[in-house]
Write a structure and sequence with these properties.
This protein is 25% helix and 17% strand. The chain has 323 residues and is an alpha/beta fold.
């Protein structure tokens, strides 16, 4: 695996290609212009794309999400100026490319994702996934369960995604957390849904998770508030359990992140997104994803820019990154 010396970091770990070595508008199309890898052997963390949108129910386009997130990650630098995290000084990180999805068959795609992640997780690596629609979290969680057992779940989203079915189908982007609960993939008392809002079909639409034991935080509960105290409470409750973070970009207000398939106004702000992810520092993070970026609805590229920054923040709070 190649090493880059294009920035001030000089160690034995892979480095992002520096802006003084190659202009940031050029170079490889990987996340942060990191080296690629054929397998996860020897890696501490790996970026993976899942370019799918056949599980969506409204706007399509998330199949282009991973490619655009990677493109907009070119401006990222390897040191986090606020948190002081320098992940590439402590971890071996690479881009594993994309899962070869089946464009025409959702259920086959779901199986392909689990097979791909089962192989990745034969190694001691933390996957950071770029979506792709939110259906993908279910097959990823199946692989995470195979390695770690039931996980605590931090789910950031405008929608609960606990539908019984969608158009008669049990697997789609609105059902993953019902299926994950039914299959025992997640630890219900340590599952947190943050940012839910919008219209619904009935008064109890967001109560399904509460009935199962989830903690549900509506977006309106945290308007104009810092989310640092909430994350302090979550960390204290979760302790050392394995944790999976799934971040739907539509959790953010469309004024911040318009490029998504199912936008809902009244959402979280970018600063709150950073607080949530940075608040995961100290948790036993075993996997993360960021989903539902739809470039056709993102003409400025701002949604993908923010998504890339949030994925870097996820990298910065992984256990090996924080020492």
């Amino acid at each position: 695996m190649s090493k880059s010396k294009g920035n001030s970091m000089t160690n034995d770990f892979n480095q992002p290609l520096g802006g003084n070595e190659m202009p940031r508008f050029a170079g490889p199309g990987t996340f942060m212009r990191l080296p690629t890898a054929q397998t996860a052997q020897g890696l501490d963390a790996a970026f993976i794309g899942i370019p799918m949108d056949i599980g969506t129910s409204w706007r399509s386009g998330t199949r282009f999400g991973p490619k655009q997130i990677r493109a907009e990650s070119n401006m990222l630098r390897p040191y986090n100026m606020w948190t002081k995290a320098a992940p590439f000084a402590q971890m071996q990180v690479a881009d594993l490319g994309d899962v070869p999805v089946n464009t025409f068959d959702l259920l086959d795609t779901v199986e392909r994702i689990t097979d791909f992640y089962d192989e990745v997780l034969t190694h001691n690596v933390v996957p950071l996934t770029m979506g792709g629609d939110h259906t993908l979290t279910l097959p990823v969680l199946r692989s995470i369960f195979n390695k770690h057992g039931p996980v605590a779940l931090i789910h950031i989203d405008a929608h609960a995604d606990t539908n019984e079915h969608m158009f008669g189908n049990e697997i789609a982007h609105g059902t993953p957390f019902r299926r994950a609960h039914e299959e025992g993939l997640i630890d219900a008392p340590n599952t947190f849904q943050i940012g839910l809002r919008g219209t619904g079909y009935a008064a109890d639409d967001f109560d399904t998770g509460r009935i199962w034991g989830f903690s549900v935080v509506h977006a309106e509960e945290v308007w104009y508030k810092s989310l640092t105290p909430l994350m302090d409470k979550i960390r204290a409750q979760v302790e050392n359990r394995p944790v999976y973070l799934t971040f739907d970009i539509d959790s953010l207000d469309p004024s911040v992140a318009p490029g998504t398939g199912t936008p809902e106004f009244g959402g979280l702000m970018a600063s709150q997104a950073f607080e949530i992810i940075r608040g995961c520092k100290g948790l036993n993070m075993v996997g993360c994803d960021l989903v539902e970026v739809s470039p056709p609805y993102d003409p400025s590229g701002n949604t993908a820019v923010l998504a890339a920054n949030l994925l870097f923040e996820m990298l910065c709070v992984l256990p090996k990154s924080t020492g």
